Amino acid sequence: MIDKGQLWVVIALLGLGSFGLRYVFPGLVGDRPLPPWILRHLRYTAVAVLPALIAPLVLWPPATGGSPDAARLGAALVATVVGLTTRSVVGTMLAGAAVLYLGLYLTG
Amino acid sequence: MQSTKSVYWQGVQAGAPFILIVAPFGTLFGVVASEAGMNLFEAVVMSALIVAGAAQFTAVQLMSEQAPTLIVLAAALTVNLRMAMYSASLTPHLGGAGGWMRVAVAYFTVDQSYACSVAAYEANPDWALPQKLAFFFGVATPVVPVWVGSTIFGVLMGARVPDNWALDFAIPITFIAIVAPILRTRAHRAAALTGIGASLLLAWMPYSSGVIVAGLIGMAVGAEVERRAMFAEGAR
């Protein structure tokens, strides 16, 4: 369960921070161009951070007390392959969910 | 010169297909938020203020793990660093707008409004600032309200979702669905694989802080692979 005090601090500061990241160039920097090396790093934030965030959740899911689980591992692997080959966001989610539920059903 | 009204509707048309992606994500966010103990008001304020699915999922996941506030903010803002890149590439086109208009542009800068607008500006070099703004807000028109509206729907559904639905795994699958389709280049794949490897090796770090360090290492590796690829290209 999420602590309510923390939740409101996070909502307020994350709202402000997200706005700040969107406003920093048009609002403050103007239309001066950015050094290419900064843009180069910014390009890889999502593809580096999101996998880093979920990798431990896939391998050691809190729902099973941290022991690897065939249904979750299988769902993550199939979703990754479907995402890489079809490039379809919704298709990836559906494939992952289907394998997860099939796996949970089979392993009971 | 095309009228701003017709350009606005071109933007709406460009944004409309994304409803198919944004609505399920928003619904899922509402369900996950409600499972984590958030009420309707909290989830809706979060979606309306932050307007960034991946960062919101990140924050909810880490708060559920009882991570400290500083870690939650640092991780979610790192996920959102790409917004700074969006704003940087929109600025040459929209930076000439007035003060409050720039505030509105910043608020409505999301993955879809950025991607569609930059593509449209390249295809229509004759557009002046009013047309560019009209198209940008046109794309955002179907996207942002659907994000907030589907969050409401998700919270209302979340109250009825039974425990055996394994919703703990909704966030991992959602993030795979966001990232796998955009792993176009070797640099993207290197960034993702490094992020995964470093995160598993750094899982011992306290308060999930290894995730942030791993993400920064992955970013640097992605940028370096791109730089070397460009260098090799230039040498040819």
Summed up, what is this model?
The complex is a heterodimer of chains A (108) and B (236). Chain A has helices at 4-29, 36-42, 45-59, 70-86, 89-107. With 108 residues, chain A is mainly alpha-helical.
Task: Provide a descriptive summary of the structure in words.
The complex is a heterodimer of chains A (108) and B (236). Chain A is extended. The model of chain A has no long low-confidence stretch (mean pLDDT 89). Chain A is mostly helical. Chain A contains 5 helices and no strands. With 236 residues, chain B is an all-alpha fold. Chain B is 77% helix and 0% strand. Chain B has 12 helices and no strands. Chain B has helices spanning 4-15, 19-35, 40-50, 53-64, 69-79, 81-94, 99-107, 111-123, 129-158, 170-179, 186-201, 209-235. In chain B, helix 2 runs parallel beside helix 4 (53-64) and helix 6 (81-94) runs parallel beside helix 8. The longest helix of chain B has 30 residues, at 129-158. Chain B is globular, with a radius of gyration of 19 Å. Chain B starts with a helix and ends with a helix. Chains A and B meet through helix 1, helix 2, helix 3, helix 4 and helix 5 of A and helix 2, helix 3, helix 4, helix 5 and helix 6 of B.
